[in-house]
């Protein structure tokens, strides 16, 4: 088991990475517990990050600073994919008035690059830049079903956490669900991460037919007809795939 990072830069980044998509603010004690760093070190690094703009202090607690947002806007690969996808997300929103997402795989998580919603959309937990587990999200199931084949094993070995009573936690049952997604061309989430919320997602492919991203429609589980909406999200994802085949963009998380 590895210990806390040793370099100053790595420790500062660990502090920023302590914030999850569900966190608005964290206390000094919470940052210390999540990073495993000594409290004096956390206090010193947090002060330096506040000075730089990576963190902000509010009511004695810390939140991520606007400097990070400014840097994020300068990442060209991410902006290219989002800009290419945005018209299709907006079309899906106009057709459904539900929450529409663009997501990419980030290890064992699905990472939301863009979200389009409105006053008629059901409020849900997802947010741009937020991560959710692969095994209990519609976009995540798309990546598991159609992406790199070893990811199912990695996720299953890591354990399938139960988020709601409907989360699929048996590897065999999840494998069956993914097999259906591979055949149908879309993944579904029936209240598996958030009670009362369901979703349907379809893959976006690059020119070599590798899964690059996924589009999803998310809303009220009692009202959302996933089978009826599946053709719409598949059509949008296919159209975006064709556009990207003509003007390729790379996955924003590619390290190469």
UniProtKB/TrEMBL annotation:
Q: Write one Gene Ontology MF term.
A: DNA binding
Q: Which PROSITE patterns match?
A: HTH_ICLR, ICLR_ED
Q: Which PANTHER family match?
A: HELIX-TURN-HELIX TRANSCRIPTIONAL REGULATOR, ICLR FAMILY, HTH-TYPE TRANSCRIPTIONAL REPRESSOR ALLR
Pfam families for this protein:
HTH_IclR (PF09339), IclR_C (PF01614)
SUPFAM superfamilies documented for this protein: GAF domain-like, Winged helix' DNA-binding domain
**Which UniProt keywords are listed?**
DNA-binding, Transcription, Transcription regulation
Native species of this protein? Answer: Amycolatopsis pretoriensis
Specify the protein name.
DNA-binding transcriptional regulator, IclR family
Source species, domain of life: Bacteria
According to the entry, every stretch annotated as the HTH iclR-type domain falls at 6-66
Q: Does the entry feature the keyword Membrane, yes or no?
A: no
Q: What InterPro entries would the database entry show?
A: GAF-like_dom_sf (IPR029016), HTH_MetabolicPath_Reg (IPR050707), Tscrpt_reg_IclR_C (IPR014757), Tscrpt_reg_IclR_N (IPR005471), WH-like_DNA-bd_sf (IPR036388), WH_DNA-bd_sf (IPR036390)
Kindly state a single biological-process term from the GO annotations of this entry. Answer: negative regulation of DNA-templated transcription
**Residue ranges of every copy of the IclR-ED domain listed in the record:** 67-246
């Amino acid at each position: 088991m590895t210990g806390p990072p040793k370099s100053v830069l790595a420790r500062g980044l660990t502090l920023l990475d302590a914030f999850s998509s569900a966190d608005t603010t964290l206390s000094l004690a919470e940052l210390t517990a999540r990073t495993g760093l000594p409290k004096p070190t956390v206090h010193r690094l947090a002060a330096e990050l506040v000075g730089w703009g990576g963190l902000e202090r509010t009511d004695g607690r810390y939140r991520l600073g606007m400097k990070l947002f400014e840097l994020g806007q300068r990442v060209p690969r991410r902006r290219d994919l989002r800009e290419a996808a945005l018209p299709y997300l907006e079309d899906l929103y106009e057709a459904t008035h539900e929450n529409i997402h663009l997501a990419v795989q980030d290890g064992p998580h699905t990472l939301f690059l863009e979200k389009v919603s409105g006053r008629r959309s059901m409020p849900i937990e997802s947010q741009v830049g937020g991560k959710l587990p692969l095994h209990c999200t519609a976009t995540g199931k798309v990546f598991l079903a159609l992406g790199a084949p070893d990811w199912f094993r990695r996720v299953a070995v890591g354990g399938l956490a139960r988020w709601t009573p409907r989360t699929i936690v048996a590897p065999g049952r999840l494998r069956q669900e993914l097999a259906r997604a591979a055949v149908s061309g879309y993944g579904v989430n029936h209240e598996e991460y958030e009670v009362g919320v369901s979703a349907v997602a379809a893959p976006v492919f690059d020119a070599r037919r590798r899964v690059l991203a996924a589009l999803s429609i998310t809303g009220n589980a009692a009202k959302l007809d996933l089978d009826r909406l599946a053709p719409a999200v598949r059509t949008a994802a296919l159209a975006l795939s064709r556009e990207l085949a003509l003007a390729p963009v790379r996955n924003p998380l590619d390290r190469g």
